[in-house]
From TrEMBL, chains A, B:
A biological process term (GO) from this entry: regulation of DNA-templated transcription
Protein species of origin: Paracoccus zhejiangensis
Boundaries of every Cyclic nucleotide-binding domain copy: 15-91
Protein name: Crp/Fnr family transcriptional regulator
GO molecular function, one term: DNA binding
InterPro entries: cNMP-bd_dom, cNMP-bd_dom_sf, HTH_CRP, RmlC-like_jellyroll, WH-like_DNA-bd_sf, WH_DNA-bd_sf
SUPFAM superfamilies: cAMP-binding domain-like (SSF51206), Winged helix' DNA-binding domain (SSF46785)
Length: 244, 244
């Protein structure tokens, strides 16, 4: 049980719902089919039907949509503890493509197992709804990013958010985190060109706020960066489980 | 039971999950506290704690975030059958503000009633997760709108999406729908100025695609508008319940 209790998903859900033994056993069944994917592997493509759900245990992934003009919009980055493709079991087809950004380890879960789990462990249903709602809240922030924030604010907000999420599953802290993203990933997420990303990162570094270099994000001035980003942790708030 | 079976929420959830008698009775309990709000009423504000959830029965609402510079980003419009503020019961505080755009009728539901319902009727939990995931899928499309689509494509996509949603709860059809939105609402949703919205609507009308006039959206060329918008109904797909 030790292995399961310390899985990133369990850790994440536990901050919202105090999980019972039944909940933990049901969650443990999600982790039976362990799979490995190499960096660059397309795990799911938009329009695919009968896709599996994955729970990311190690590594980073990225969800995106391709546009008719060949551009792509990155929707979000996934880190350990995140579901990959949860919507693909609720819709008939996947509305997104998913790519492994690093080598990853993930548990594959089939739709009936997830839906069946809700009947046996209804608190889990609430926890999964919460995780999905947090994803939606992130999307809201990304929408505000693209619609109303300046390029520098967007970047600051994304780096703060990634830091908070990683911290939440026990990877990284207030000093920074390891980050496999390239400037192209950041550009496709923030609606900027790679050259613009480069300029924005230089400005943030020169202002003494944050440094992104050699796969490592270092928060040089956490409070300053938070203020610049207008980063409100409300949608990431975890002052202990809401549902006991 | 007739009243409940025909509520917009029941209608919406039924397209995803074949609801049992227990599910229907549990849903019926959500509709006990009926409330009325006047157009312009702020039903929820960002940062508010202990907000209720509402299920919209009649009228339109709008969720948004205010920016430090006084601008606002509309996140989505809510129509009959939609939850208002579902995330506010899962987080400690609401991450959005909510305003009634027309006079509205809504059922007020308290958090324990919703969470308790999942234990009694687990299929409902799946249905609510689905509804929440559909909201998230819409957010993805809005993200693509702001990040990568032209002004004309954004508008076309929003109008197609509203049409599909309204059709889904039995309001409006392929010829069009009644629409209380002003050019200011459209501007705040699409990241455009009101003048730009005006110009875009004129272009769509002159191209014979869609006319928005006097509170009524008329699809003059449904297929043409769909093609221009790159509107894929995948995330709105309802070819019968997935969960029987």
């Amino acid at each position: 049980m030790t292995h399961i209790e310390s899985s990133p998903l369990t850790r994440k859900l536990s901050t919202f719902v105090a999980l019972s033994d039944v909940d933990l056993e049901t969650l443990a069944r999600f982790h039976r089919r362990r799979r490995t994917f190499l960096a660059g592997h397309e795990m799911m493509h938009e329009g695919q039907s009968n896709a599996s759900v994955y729970i990311l245990a190690e590594g980073w992934a990225c969800s995106y949509k391709m546009l008719p003009d060949g551009g792509r919009q990155v929707i979000n980055f996934q880190i350990p503890g995140d579901f990959l493709g949860l919507r693909s079991i609720l819709f008939r087809t996947s509305d997104l493509s998913l790519e492994a950004l690093t080598d990853i380890e993930a548990s594959e879960v089939f739709a009936p197992d997830i839906l069946g789990a809700f009947a046996e462990a209804p608190r889990l249903a609430t926890a999964v709804l919460w995780a999905s709602s947090r994803d939606e809240a992130m999307m809201v922030e990304h929408l505000v990013n693209l619609g109303r924030r300046s390029a520098v604010e967007r970047m600051a907000h994304l780096l703060m958010e990634l830091g908070a999420r990683l911290n939440h599953v026990g990877i990284g802290d207030r000093t920074g985190f390891s980050c496999p993203l390239t400037q192209y990933h950041l550009a496709d997420a923030l609606g900027l060109s790679a050259i613009h990303v480069n300029r924005v990162l230089r400005q943030l570094r020169e202002d003494g706020l944050v440094t992104f270099r050699q796969g490592k994000v270092t928060f040089n001035n956490f409070e300053g960066l938070q203020a610049l980003a207008g980063f409100d942790t409300g949608y990431m708030d975890h002052a202990g489980p809401l549902l006991r």
